[in-house]
Amino acid sequence: MAPSIFVNFRRADTGTTGPHLDTALQREFGKEEVFRDQRSIAKGAHFPDEIIGKLRKCDILLALMGDRWASVTDPTGRRCLDNEDDWVRREIALALELGLTVLPVLVDRAEMPDKDALPGDIQVLTTHQAVHFRPHHEDIDFPPLFKAIRDAVPALGPGRPNDTGKGNGSGPRDVTINRGSVTFDRGTANTFNFDSKGDQDDGART
User: Fold this and answer.
1) In CATH, which of 3.40.50.10140, 3.40.250.10, 3.50.50.60, 2.30.30.100 is domain 5-193?
2) CB neighbours of residue 100 within 10 Å
3) pLDDT tens-digit profile of 39-90?
4) pTM value?
């Protein structure tokens, strides 16, 4: 089964938010509906073919953007986005070319960069309506994010009764913190581990 949701992120910009969001999306929509490179690509597989092949079959790309998204540099000091072979840039450019829904997800206090600050093949990204996501306010920010995804991909089906924003995200929740995990008690409980180590990067995405 081809995934519907493609998670695009740069670890040097948003840290472990990409893997954490991937976990939440799997719980909400199902593991088979979500693609994140390090989790989804088998060891030994050809990375470019896997990325391009899966992206062509997806319906929506989530572009996670932190406050350093447009300025992160590589070890030589060159801005990553200025490299035509940069995978964050390539994935977004291909998604736009394919006509997929590209949803900017502004992490924490990030703002959309100026159009002129981006390479020509992804400048149109600045005209896409964005959603905000704060890693430590999931109880507030997950419902509108999930709704935006379902609005773009109706085939994913309706949300669970308490995940539509009418009950689950509109009022207070009980929060329990246990050794880096946050458990939200209302309806279906979800636990997300905020271990700062996260996944170990394989070097393909910086």
Assistant:
1) 3.40.50.10140
2) 19
3) 998 889 998 899 999 999 999 999 999 999 999 999 999 999 999 999 999 9
4) 0.77
